[in-house]
Amino acid sequence: MAEDIYLDHAATTPLRREVQETLDEILSTTFGNASSIHSFGQDAKRLLEESREVIASCIGANPDEIIFTSGGTESDNLAIRGTALAQKDKGNHIITTTVEHHAVLNCCKALESEGFEVTYVPVNNECLVDPTRIAGAIRPETILVTTMFANNETGAIQPVAEIGELAGKEGVVFHTDAVQAAGKLPVNVEDLQVDLLSLSGHKIYGPKGVGALYVRRGTPLHPLFCGGHHEGAVRPGTENVPGIAAFAKAMEIVIEELPESGTRLRLLKEKLASGLIEIISGVRRNGSKDTDKSLPNILNMSIEGVDGESLLLNLDLMGIAVSTGSACTSGATDPSHVLLAMALPPQLAQSSLRFSFGRDNTEAHVERLLELLPDIVARLRRVSAVRLKDRPGSVQT
Ligand SMILES: Cc1ncc(COP(=O)(O)O)c(C=O)c1O
Question: In angstroms, rounded to a whole number, what is the distance separating the alpha carbons of residues 129 and 124?
């Protein structure tokens, strides 16, 4: 039987062996509460602070600027709502883009219902935002700009450093969601000129349910929870020390492996993109082809005349896992908000697949996909042609 092929690393990644070992060891040896002053607590505290140093050094930050959270969603919420609450006397206006992850978009929507105003800056047909449009939206009451570093559906890399510079000149706090970018691109908070930056463990071969928010010294932030004085009193709650140490281990390794891993992943992605365009008619690539404008591991393609979900299910039956969009929206029948924001017609947006590569993928995986997809597409196109022909009132030719 052919081996299963996992091509959904943007949704989540498997734990890598070294990370699993770290996790197992700490779970079985270091159970103390990092806030306790006895030696059990101090052992946990030491691991916590070592992990903080690792994460900080991976992104060019100071250890006291790292707040551990339960993952990307919480980091985004803490950054956005935390800024809104901390700066509500200064202003009520937030700027973001139309293609953010729902962790950002829905947080912004919730704040709108609480009296904040949000400007959603559009993107072009490559999913890229123009920094001057962000700058043009800044007004005296703007308290936050939040734009993602790399898009989870198309892999588009936003001009974050330019946006950071423009926001900084206006004295506006700047947040970026670097959940997909971390481990695929160098992430340095000074180069990017960010005040707040979100990270997540499970996208980089670390555990689920753990992440971090970088908070530049002096950036006002209101906690989302009431509780004790953990994490600089910004994120109350006993720290998940095993998860945090495993996250730090995962981060350390993915950073060490850059840029070799990026080169390898990009080769696989380009092989699949050119192969699909060559062997299947009516295929289009969604997002930029430029290497500096798209992540090395995410490829989004629309295949005319077939439903993305049907393709996904057919591939799944053959042991190949891909996605039709972001994991958080799968199950919903609406086309992706990201593809629609890039002005893709709804039908093409419904016909899209996201392939996201990871460290275990090989050229043989791409070849297998190229071998299987043409037949699946041809079969699904035949079925949908018959359905259209039989639909009452449809024109028969
Ligand atoms: C860009 C982006 N931001 C945030 C998140 C949420 O991260 P988490 O799953 O750790 O809550 C994801 C996960 O899909 C993501 O891709």
Answer: 6
211 lines ligand 1 (CB under 6 A): yes
- 201 close to ligand 1 (CB < 6 Angstrom): no
- Domains of the chain in start order, with CATH, are 5-12+259-390 (3.90.1150.10), 17-256 (3.40.640.10)
Give the confidence band of 384 by pLDDT, cuts at 50, 70, 90: confident
The answer to whether 145 and 127 are in contact (CB under 8 A) is: no
Q: How far is the CA of 200 from the centre of ligand 1 (A)?
A: 7
Reported as a single tens digit per residue, the pLDDT across 262-278 is 999 999 999 999 999 99
C-alpha 58/C-alpha 140 separation (Å) is 34
Torsion of CA 102, 265, 355, 160, to 10 degrees: 30
Atom of ligand 1 at shortest distance to CA of 76? 4
Query: What positions carry a catalytic annotation?
Result: 328
| Beta carbon of 73 within 6 Å of any ligand 1 atom | yes
CB-side neighbour CA atoms (13 Å) of 43: 10
Question: What pLDDT, in 10s, does the model give residues 324-380?
Answer: 965 555 555 689 999 999 999 999 999 999 999 999 999 999 999 999 999 999 999
Half-sphere exposure of 231 (CA within 13 A, CB side): 30
Determine the pLDDT at residue 218: 97
- Report in angstroms the alpha-carbon separations of 205 from 48, 83, 250: 19, 30, 6
The mean predicted confidence, pLDDT, of the chain is 94
- Measured distance CA(148)–CA(129) in Å, rounded: 10
